[in-house]
Write a structure and sequence with these properties.
The protein has about 300 residues and is of the alpha/beta class. The protein contains 14 helices and 8 strands. The chain has an 8-stranded mixed beta sheet with strand order 3-2-1-4-5-6-7-8, sandwiched between helices. Strand 1, helix 1 and strand 2 form a beta-alpha-beta unit. Helix 9 packs across helix 13. The termini are far apart.
């Protein structure tokens, strides 16, 4: 299948490579021309403008956008609309808020443009292992694009989960769950790291992946991270969030669903970014005021 692909970052480039491996024809564009030239050297057809990318595709065209969610994706869609025609399809594979999908879909439908949202999981390991795809959109364009989805995913790793926005909705909840899993591993290994026993945490991570109920790919990745330096001395405990955890918590609030683990996991990430918590200072000051408890001064 011939498809346009916009965005050649770490995930985007590996997705193109996986599609090329299955002999799909990819017209690739990236804002930075060097990345376009690099992937062209691996078999993609290079395009250096959006107009050129669209011109190199046969009708009905399909263009996959793999750029940061929000303004960058919005701008890319607007530019594409200058050149696409009725019957063409835009696929958004970024970490987009499903509310944006629900807003875009009718707007594009009025112009005869199909819109498909694809939640993508797999990270930098997706080239070798495949990308888990959670796809939302109308049946006809999704079915037509299925050869692309099947090539990107491992066996059983692609599902058309529902209508417009459903793919990114499921991916949002997926990432919220990921927050909770990661936090549980972090707390458990911190307890063992503080133990009086001289525990080999790398070995324990390996052990738990052999038949334990807590075995997982995340735990395999932790094995790699702990190997050779179980103190993780080269890292700073600063943890970002890319938005999906926040959106999951907000959706839980909107639907009156209790989600304490995901919510606290998100809040813990916020705390990791504070060099010195003002709230902790307030707690110390209060304990000192009412009970004369010891405080540490700057």
């Amino acid at each position: 299948m011939r498809i346009g692909f916009i965005g050649l970052g770490r995930m985007g480039a590996n997705m193109v490579r996986r599609l090329l491996r299955d002999e799909h024809e990819i017209v690739a564009y990236n804002r930075t021309a060097e990345k376009t030239k690099e992937i062209a050297g691996e078999g993609a057809d290079a395009a250096f403008t959006i107009e050129e990318l669209v011109r190199k595709l046969e009708k009905p065209r399909a263009v996959w956008i793999m750029v940061p969610a929000g303004d960058a994706t919005e701008a890319q869609i607007e530019e594409l609309l200058e050149f696409l025609e009725p019957g063409d399809t835009i696929i958004d594979g970024g970490n987009t808020n499903f509310h944006d999908d629900q807003r875009r879909y009718p707007k594009l439908k009025e112009r005869g443009i199909h819109y498909v949202d694809a939640g993508v999981s797999g990270g930098i390991w997706g080239l070798a292992n495949g990308f888990c795809l959670m796809v939302g959109g109308d049946e006809e364009p999704v079915k037509r694009l299925e050869p692309v989805f099947v090539s990107l995913a491992p066996e059983g790793g692609y599902l058309h989960v529902g209508g417009p926005g459903a793919g990114h909705y499921v991916k949002m909840v997926h990432n919220g769950i990921e927050y909770g899993l990661m936090q549980a591993y972090a707390e458990g290994f911190e307890i063992m790291h503080a133990s009086d026993y001289p525990l080999d945490l790398d070995a324990i991570a390996k052990l738990w992946n052999q038949g334990s109920v807590v075995r997982s790919w995340l735990l395999e990745l932790l094995e790699t991270a702990l190997s050779g330096d179980q103190d993780l001395s080269q890292l700073k405990g600063w943890v970002a969030d890319s938005g999906e955890g926040r959106w999951t918590v907000q959706e839980a609030i909107d639907k009156d669903v209790p989600a304490p683990v995901i919510t606290i996991s998100l809040q813990t990430r916020f705390r990791s970014r504070q060099d010195d918590s003002y709230a902790a200072k307030v707690l110390a000051a209060l304990r000192n005021e009412f009970g004369g408890h010891a405080v540490k001064l700057e």
